[in-house]
Amino acid sequence: MTPGQRMAMAKHWPEFGIDYRHRTLDLDQLFGRQAPKILDIGSGTGDFTVAMAMAHPENDYLAVEVHTPGIGSLLRKIITHRLHNIRICNHDVIDVLRWQIPPGSLDSVYLFFPDSWPKKRHHKRRLVNTEFLQLLGRCMQRHARLFIATDWENYAEQIIDVFSQSPDFVNIAGEIKYAPRPHWRESTRFEQRGRRLAHDVFDFVFSYQPSTAGYPENLQSQ
Questions:
Q1: In this structure, which of 51, 67, 70, 146 has its CB flanked by the most CB atoms within 10 Å?
Q2: Which domains does the chain have, with CATH numbers?
Q3: Is 161 a catalytic residue?
């Protein structure tokens, strides 16, 4: 980490950071209000998270990122722009979903340009799989939106295959189709790098429509 990132972590993590524990969070208490809750998975240095938080102060944004220098950069931007609607988890999102996010609490989820693990022997490390969908769906409200983007065609095909096997997620663009790029999705450095490599960008929008009777009440006992 740079000295500035290190200083931001030391000074501002207690206010904006969420320590990982096997305990369900009270998100309203965490943000100090009732508001739509949006999960940003893999927030990086936080440019997109900050842009959304500034454009939509009515929403609360929970950023999850494992790269500590990126979190240091995000904290600096939060302070620079005097934002109060961002909180940060520095931990693997699978554990965060499993243990910390309350059932049926998320209004939207962003997963933009996750690690592509391009080598075939590493495809099993990709985040989007059946277990991920089950954990994520448990934490989403009915009809909540999941936005995904990748610049790896093979990963896009895998995403289509995984979601086609889930009855609880509906592809808004139509079965086995890509969505138009959301007009509000700003270009990240990962996307810019992909375009420099002549990669196409594939967007998805899914609506969570669980078929389980009694959702989300039945989840409270799980």
A1: 146
A2: 3-221 (3.40.50.150)
A3: no
